[in-house]
Amino acid sequence: MTLLDKKRFVPGINSFGKEKTPPGQVATVKFPVLTYGATPEIDTKDWSFKVWGEVEEEKQWTWDDFMKLPQTTIRADFHCVTHWSRFDDYWTGVLFKDLVKFIRIKPTAKFVMQHAYGGYTTNNAIDVMLNEDVILVHTFNGAPLPRAHGGPMRVFTPRRYAWKGAKWVNGLEFMTKDRAGFWEMNGYDTPADPWKEERYG
Ligand SMILES: Nc1nc2c(c(=O)[nH]1)N[C@H]1C(S)=C(S)[C@@H](COP(=O)(O)O)O[C@H]1N2
Ligand SMILES: [Mo]
Fold it and tell me: Which of 35, 125, 137, 181 could form an S-S bond across to 93 if both were Cys, CB 3.0 to 4.6 Å?
């Protein structure tokens, strides 16, 4: 990853053909931190990542193992439900669609719960997770993801409001039936599509 695009507010259409700015959103160059509760401090040597639930076998990765998975950099926009959006940042890590090639998911798996250090959870349909740009991120604009923003590893779902990606992620639970995550239990929407303004459920 080289060129960092200093020109933000790029007008027009995003990478999946939608108007870049969803309704009710305002562009910012700031990157506010939105965390409920304390910020966990996880060293990469202690970090581990698990998958369980509707899988043929549970699996666990260390940091070093995870870094050996296929790595991708995407350029994408970040939309917070509190009405701000950041445009054209570079996010590097492992795409969910690549990660699942290393997991034997049962056909009964229809939903995915993200789990994080500190206890945060958020739920998505597996089809949403399989969007080509859903990514487990460790590097932001070419530098290690800051701890306040979820370092060493977070999930980013560019086609959904930002609460749909767990900071400090440490596992994915594959589920037959949907279950509400942290904000979803507290009145936030489940699909959470910013272009449909699905803010509160
Ligand atoms: N573990 C964890 N992940 C989280 C949250 C949180 O409180 N804890 N907040 C969510 C919300 S509501 C938003 S808007 C984004 C904010 O990401 P940022 O702090 O990097 O802007 O992270 C999401 N992921
Ligand atoms: Mo949020």
Answer: 137
Q: At CB < 8 A and 24+ separation, what contacts does 127-132 make?
A: 128/157, 128/159, 128/160, 128/164, 128/191, 129/96, 129/157, 130/96, 130/97, 130/100, 131/16, 131/97, 131/157, 131/158, 131/159, 132/95, 132/97
pLDDT in tens, the chain (201 residues): 333 444 444 568 888 888 999 999 999 999 999 999 999 999 999 999 999 999 999 999 999 999 999 999 999 999 999 999 999 999 999 999 999 999 999 999 999 999 999 999 999 999 999 999 999 999 999 999 999 999 999 999 999 999 999 999 999 999 999 999 999 999 999 999 999 999 998
Mark the residues whose beta carbon lies below 5 A from ion ligand 2: 34, 81, 163
Superfamily of the domain at 47-196? Oxidoreductase, molybdopterin-binding domain (3.90.420.10)
Give distance in angstroms: CA of 150 to centre of ligand 2: 13
32 lines ligand 1 (CB under 6 A): yes
User: In this structure, are residues 1 and 73 in contact, taking their beta carbons and an 8 Å threshold?
Assistant: yes
* Ligand 1 centroid, distance to 45 Cα (angstroms): 23
Q: Where are the domains of the chain?
A: 47-196
